[in-house]
């Protein structure tokens, strides 16, 4: 059993694939694919797991994920608005040579070539850029032929001009993906369902059908973090969303995020973000 490699729908007449999602059907599995992923979040927020990075995301974020880089999108609905679909995002997948083997070697494409190389570590552009990219991405959805192709190049060129942040650390290396599909997804699903409660290492190891010591080594190799670090970062990411989108008290947020006391919540939050929950909310 292998870490899930997605085979993305592509037609004979298209050099890349684009879709608009209103439900996270294809996002909530630990997976990888040969194609580069270019995704723009219009509505929805949650946590992105990519390589050895755990990153909160929200509406306005645009992410570029390199080929064969394992990732997992955990969308959460904090609005409680049943009238809206859970998410709204446009997702584009394309291979590094989708425009031809030597296309990005011509001088005019040097900026895009550098962008695609940088995407191997995952790139994030945050905050209020939808107004700039929405028109181009919608045009890709609504046109065909050479116009669709050129709109994608324009969107990538536009993306390259924005300040972006690398998500994956420099020392992270894509490992052999064998024996991962069910094991990692079982572990990730268990964490997703139980991170707000007491997390026991024995139960995590049971999901992977491994001993505790073997599981800890395995998990650190796959994510770059210990299981405890990983769960703590998910809890902090959830707390950040509650601080940003709700009026809950700090004590309510502490316990809703899975921390069993306010002291540990405050310490772990500050250690990860270099600011207190109160400072985060004010900003």
TrEMBL record:
CDD domains: cupin_MtlR-like_N
InterPro entries: Cupin_2 (IPR013096), Homeodomain-like_sf (IPR009057), HTH_AraC (IPR018060), HTH_AraC-typ_CS (IPR018062), RmlC-like_jellyroll (IPR014710), RmlC_Cupin_sf (IPR011051)
Residue stretches making up the HTH araC/xylS-type domain: 185-283
Signal peptide region: none
PROSITE patterns: HTH_ARAC_FAMILY_1, HTH_ARAC_FAMILY_2
Domain of life: Bacteria
Keywords associated with the record: DNA-binding, Transcription, Transcription regulation
Pfam families in the cross-refs: Cupin_2, HTH_18
Keyword Transcription in record: yes
Protein name listed in UniProt: Helix-turn-helix domain-containing protein
Organism of derivation: Sphingobacterium tabacisoli
Taxonomic lineage from the root: Bacteria, Pseudomonadati, Bacteroidota, Sphingobacteriia, Sphingobacteriales
């Amino acid at each position: 059993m292998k870490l899930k490699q997605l085979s993305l729908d592509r037609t004979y007449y298209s050099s890349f694939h684009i879709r608009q999602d209103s439900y996270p059907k294809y996002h909530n599995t630990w997976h990888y694919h040969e194609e580069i992923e270019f995704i723009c979040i219009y509505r929805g927020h949650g946590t992105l797991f990519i390589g050895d990075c755990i990153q909160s995301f929200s509406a306005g974020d645009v992410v570029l994920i390199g080929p064969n880089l394992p990732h997992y999108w955990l969308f959460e609905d904090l609005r409680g608005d049943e009238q809206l679909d859970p998410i709204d995002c446009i997702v584009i997948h394309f291979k590094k040579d989708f425009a031809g083997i030597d296309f990005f070697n011509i001088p005019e494409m040097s900026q895009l070539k550098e962008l695609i190389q940088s995407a191997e570590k995952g790139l994030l552009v945050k905050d209020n850029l939808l107004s700039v990219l929405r028109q181009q991405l919608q045009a890709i959805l609504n046109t065909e032929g050479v116009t669709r192709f050129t709109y994608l190049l324009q969107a990538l060129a536009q993306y390259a001009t924005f300040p972006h942040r690398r998500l994956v650390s420099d020392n992270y290396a894509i490992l052999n993906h064998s024996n991962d599909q069910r094991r990692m997804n079982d572990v990730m699903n268990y964490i997703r369902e139980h991170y707000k409660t007491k997390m026991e290492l024995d139960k995590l190891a049971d999901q992977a059908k491994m001993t505790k010591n073997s599981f800890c080594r395995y998990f650190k190799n796959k994510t770059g973090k210990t299981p405890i670090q990983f769960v703590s970062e998910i809890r902090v990411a959830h707390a950040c969303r509650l601080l940003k989108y709700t009026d809950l008290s700090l004590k309510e947020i502490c316990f809703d995020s899975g921390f069993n006391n306010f002291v540990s919540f405050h310490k772990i939050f500050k250690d990860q973000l270099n600011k207190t929950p109160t400072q985060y909310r004010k900003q």
